[in-house]
Amino acid sequence: MAAFTPNTPQLKAAQEWVDAYGTRDIDKISETCSKNYTHQTLPKSMGLSEETKEEYIKRCGGLLPLFTKFEVRIQSRVIAIRLAG
């Protein structure tokens, strides 16, 4: 799991986001998203359109119980998410 010293508001928000996904708790994940949050799944060729916060939280909440582990790592300034089922 990624961990860093949250000495700026941006890093604090990023750490909260990483921690929320690590718990697989949809309520904690929802708390990290602003009311105007939109989610775009990439690559776009998957055919999933942009989602509102409510749509994303509903879809994500249905998927999270399928995984035993949700690991977020920061690799070379790119966030990599590994799902284990």
Classified by CATH, the class is Alpha Beta
Number of strands: 4
Q: Kindly estimate the percentage of residues that lie in beta strands according to DSSP.
A: 15-25%
Secondary structural class: alpha+beta
Through-space gap between termini:
17 Å
Poorly predicted regions = none
Helix content: 25-40%
Kindly describe this structure.
Helix content is about 40%, strand content about 20%. It has about 80 residues and is α+β, with helices and mostly antiparallel strands. The chain has a single domain (about 10-85), classed as Nuclear Transport Factor 2, Chain: A, CATH 3.10.450. Strands 1-2 form a two-stranded antiparallel sheet. The longest helix is centred in the first third of the chain and has 15 residues, at about 10-25. It is globular and about 35 Å long.
Would you spell out the secondary-structure blueprint of this structure?
Blueprint: H1 9-23, H2 26-31, E1 38-39, E2 51-52, H3 53-63, E3 69-75, E4 78-84
Tell me briefly what this model is.
The protein is α+β, with helices and mostly antiparallel strands.
What key attributes describe this structure?
single chain, 85 residues, alpha+beta, Nuclear Transport Factor 2, Chain: A, two-stranded antiparallel ribbon, two-stranded antiparallel sheet, 3 helices, 4 strands, 38% helix, globular
